[in-house]
Design a protein that fits this description.
The protein is 54% helix and 6% strand. The chain contains 8 helices and 2 strands, in the order αααααββααα. Helix 6 packs antiparallel against helix 7.
């Protein structure tokens, strides 16, 4: 009886090995059919990639003007061809008065940038959210991001932002 049980176990083991070999052969023949399918979530919104200048500032942990996160600036950054412009250099005057060559992607025409206080209230609201997300993506410390979130939330909840008088909203923008 023991020998019969042992032979049955060997036979089952042999059949199992044959089945595994058949499946392995099937997987080799039909790779696409058996390719693993990653379980990713579908993107839920647009990808907002700011200008390289803004990205470099965020990576360094420096504050970046809200203008770079407005719809206008994000659209401008999207149309910027990095493969061509990444090698270009531009001459800038440093704080100490010396002229230095820097990659064009790290510099920006300052005359085209709208100051934070000159943004419209709508631009401010959208840009602040984009900037907070970019701060998180660039691994800013949580307390720094939370500080901005709290500050901008207080501004958004201020009674003046619902006022029909535009100068009150401008005052809030100047304050921030």
């Amino acid at each position: 009886a023991e020998q019969a049980a042992e032979e049955l176990a060997q036979c089952q083991h042999h059949l199992q090995d044959e089945e595994e070999a058949r499946i392995a052969e099937e997987c080799k023949k039909n790779k696409a059919k058996y390719a693993p399918i990653p379980d990713f979530e579908v993107p839920s919104g647009p990808v907002n990639i700011p200008a390289l200048y803004a990205t470099h500032k965020l990576k360094k942990g420096e504050y970046c003007k809200l203008y770079f996160f407005t719809n206008v600036s994000l659209a401008e950054a999207e149309s910027f061809n990095t493969s061509i412009n990444n090698e270009a250099l531009t001459l800038l005057k440093a704080d100490n008065g010396q002229h230095i060559w820097v990659p064009a992607s790290n510099s920006r025409d300052k005359s085209a940038i709208i100051k934070d206080e000159d943004l419209t209230w709508e631009q401010f609201g959208k840009a602040a959210v984009c900037l907070m997300n970019a701060m998180r993506e660039h691994d800013w410390q949580k307390d720094r991001v939370d500080m901005h979130v709290k500050f901008w939330t207080v501004l958004e909840e201020h009674p003046w932002c619902r006022s029909p008088h535009n100068h009150l909203k401008c005052t809030l923008l100047l304050y921030q």
